[in-house]
């Protein structure tokens, strides 16, 4: 079973859940919106059986002790700094990293900007940032799938929509997941300031940025479900052309957006394979 503890990074207190042997190869697991490290439980158990140490982080805005006020505190640079700081706090010179949804966004950033610390990456659901940006500009399907951005970036309106009527909208996002997990996610987002902090990740996005993205040469395994309602095929398939190093694309036929919970075996196997071959 995962062990819960806290760690101080950037003067904030984060909750982490660790599983597997302390001396095993390490992988950091990053959750997405609007979840937490709970989404990695089944994956972490499989990794532990394979002798791999997993560190699942409740990220900025999700850990109660790491919930600063103000949208600027949720810029990507701050979120990346937290994960690098996690390695420092745990005295880990290097690790692999896997992330789902927003966690995948940070995963891409980590392996691109800190290739000496993050030896390989398994981004889940979200494609390479450049492939996604191009699809958002040119692909009608992705434009339609990303239509919710406008709501999530609107302060007050998004919180009301998601939490109103006993969080019916928020609960509906998770249709079909473990009811206990759904309740845990809803409870977390219902805490004072928690949903606003989580939505600040969206509100801090710079959708107009054209800053060049560093070349990625470390191993990448991209896992994507073909039934994802938020991330389309065009960007998923174009990701291969954006990666310079070893690359594998795993398409999970008929799997929706919640990949780590829908297909934990496939995600764990991808992480295990990458760690053992890189």
UniProtKB/TrEMBL annotation:
Keywords: Hydrolase. Transmembrane segments: none annotated. Residues 25-259 form the AB hydrolase-1 domain. It holds the Pfam family Abhydrolase_1. It comes from the Bacteria. InterPro entries: AB_hydrolase_1 (IPR000073), AB_hydrolase_fold (IPR029058), Epox_hydrolase-like (IPR000639). GO terms for molecular function: hydrolase activity. This is Alpha/beta hydrolase. It comes from Fodinicola feengrottensis.
């Amino acid at each position: 079973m995962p062990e819960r503890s806290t760690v101080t990074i950037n003067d904030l207190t984060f909750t982490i859940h660790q599983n597997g042997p302390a001396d095993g190869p390490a992988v950091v697991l990053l959750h997405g919106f609007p979840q937490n490290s709970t989404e990695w439980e089944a994956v972490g158990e499989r990794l532990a059986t394979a002798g791999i140490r997993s560190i699942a982080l409740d990220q900025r805005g999700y850990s109660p002790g790491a919930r600063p006020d103000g949208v600027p505190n949720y810029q990507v640079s701050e979120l990346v700094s937290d994960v690098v700081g996690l390695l420092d706090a745990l005295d880990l010179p290097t690790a692999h990293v896997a992330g789902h949804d927003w966690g995948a966004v940070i995963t891409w950033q980590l392996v691109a900007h800190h290739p000496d610390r993050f030896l390989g990456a398994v981004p889940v659901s979200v494609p390479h940032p450049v492939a996604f940006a191009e699809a958002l500009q040119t692909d009608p399907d992705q434009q339609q799938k990303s239509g919710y951005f406008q709501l999530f970036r609107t302060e007050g309106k998004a919180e009301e929509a998601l939490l109103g009527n006993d969080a019916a909208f928020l609960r509906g996002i998770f249709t079909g997941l473990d009811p206990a997990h759904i309740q845990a996610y809803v409870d977390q987002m219902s805490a004072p300031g928690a949903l606003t902090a989580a939505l600040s990740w969206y509100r801090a996005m710079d959708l107009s940025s054209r800053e060049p993205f560093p070349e990625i040469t470390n191993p990448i395994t991209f896992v994507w479900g073909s039934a994802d309602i938020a991330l389309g095929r065009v960007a998923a398939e174009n990701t291969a052309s954006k990666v310079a190093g070893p690359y594998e694309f795993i398409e999970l036929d008929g799997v929706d957006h919640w990949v780590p919970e829908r297909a934990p075996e496939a995600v764990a196997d991808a992480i295990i394979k990458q760690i053992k071959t890189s």
